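step: validate -> pass
step: tokenize input -> pass
step: predict -> running
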Amino acid sequence: MMELIIVSIGALAKHAIWGEKIAMRTSHATTTLIKTGDKNILIDPSLPAQALAARLEERSGLKPQQITHVFLTNWRPVHRRAIELFGSAQWLMHEEEIAAANAALENAVDIAHRQNQPVDDIITNEQALLKRVQAAPDELADGVDLFPLTGYTPGQCGLLIAEPTLTTIIAGDAVPTAAHFSAGQVFGDCYDLAKAKESLSELYEVADMIVPGHDNIFLARRSG
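step: predict -> pass
step: emit ->
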């Protein structure tokens, strides 16, 4: 039996659809747990570690060491604040996002070398973290498959949870909030805006339920 649990509902620092022009709150991503068989898969551990550990226990009864896998929908820092809390888990991300993150970090190192400057500790720490992240397989568990949603980042990727009468997609930042989905809008600072819109269109066709990047799970209205 599979169980999907919203561990923490995310929020946007600045919600453009609400008319906000400046940051009004701390941004954090929605964190989701999939319990299936002997796997406990945590998606986007965004809250600070102490807060997330408490929320995980409140929502699921699990301790951090009981998480078997951590899946990141993208490499943006807000989606992985507490990833080191899950040191015994396998860390996973779409291989295209891993490649893009590696390229960006290597470019930062090259720039520092060309300018005869030391490499910033932040870059070094990011590289060390990224080395621990493995390319996610196409299927994380029975009924839990990768669902690439390129656009917001080069390798933005969600998870498709297939049940007999329901298709749920954990979309991450491909769908920032339910309001963005209803308005047909994506983040304005996308890596590739056209591809982000294509990914959003695909979700209209496929998803019954969507877990967005910074909001609660919601019912999607298919266009087909």
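step: describe -> The chain has one domain: 2-219.
step: cleanup -> pass
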